[in-house]
Amino acid sequence: MKYGDSIHRQVAVFKALAHETRLRLVEILAREGEKCVCELVDRVGFDQSTISKHLSVLKAAGVVGSRKERLNVIYGLRTPCVYQFIKCVDQMNGDKECVLACPGAQQGGEAGDVSISGPLPDGQGRAHLVGDESVPGNEQGKSCCKG
């Protein structure tokens, strides 16, 4: 697999997740397990064609899979870690202490300024979070993302 191929697949996943309704569908499937389209229609409140279209985007990106069960199509997450990633994003956006727990995290010079000075736990990239209040120091051994 070429590096560019991996990036293109990652972009497809991020694009698929970049919609409120699709994130809601992922959350429902993660918390409640497989569902048919009719059950998702009841939960989300859109018509069947809208839900089916959103599910097809998620399926094309590899986020969900489907199987036929009599007259119904049943959808479920292909990789439950997608929901863990979404929860990690929630933690990064709302919990500065969680970000500080990441290896290499340091509080910056300005109040609430936090950066990851080394590679993230997965070995990729850097992160930077700016807030408006002081954040306690890094506590070693804490997980970056809590589910």
Indicate the topology.
Layout (H helix, E strand, L loop, with lengths): L2 H15 L2 H13 L2 E2 H8 L3 H13 L3 E6 L2 E6 L3 H14 L1 H5 L4 E3 L5 E4 L11 E3 L17
Antiparallel strand pairs: 1-3, 2-3, 4-5, 5-6
Helix pairs in contact: 1-4
Q: How would you describe what is shown here?
A:
- By secondary structure, the chain is of the alpha+beta class.
- Helices cover 46% and strands 16% of the residues.
- The chain is built from 6 helices and 6 strands; from the N terminus they run ααβααββααβββ.
- The strands form 2 sheets. Strands 1-3-2 form a 3-stranded antiparallel β-sheet. The chain has a 3-stranded antiparallel β-sheet with strand order 4-5-6.
- The radius of gyration is 19 Å and the shape is globular.
- Mean pLDDT is 75; it is low at 114-147.
Strand order within the widest beta sheet = 1-3-2
Number of strands: 6
Mean pLDDT: 75
Tally the structural domains.
Answer: 2
Can you tell me the overall shape? Answer: globular
Q: Give the class-level CATH name of the largest domain.
A: Mainly Alpha
Helix percentage range: 40-55%
Q: Sheet with the most strands?
A: 3 strands, antiparallel
**CATH topology (level 3) name of the largest domain:** Arc Repressor Mutant, subunit A
What is the radius of gyration? 19 Å
The SS-based structural class is alpha+beta
CATH homologous superfamily placement of the largest domain: Winged helix-like DNA-binding domain superfamily/Winged helix DNA-binding domain
What's the N-to-C terminus distance? 30 Å
Order of helical and strand elements: HHEHHEEHHEEE
Number of helices: 6
Beta-strand content estimate: 15-25%
CATH architecture of the largest domain: Orthogonal Bundle
What multimeric state do the chains show? single chain
Low-confidence stretches: 114-147
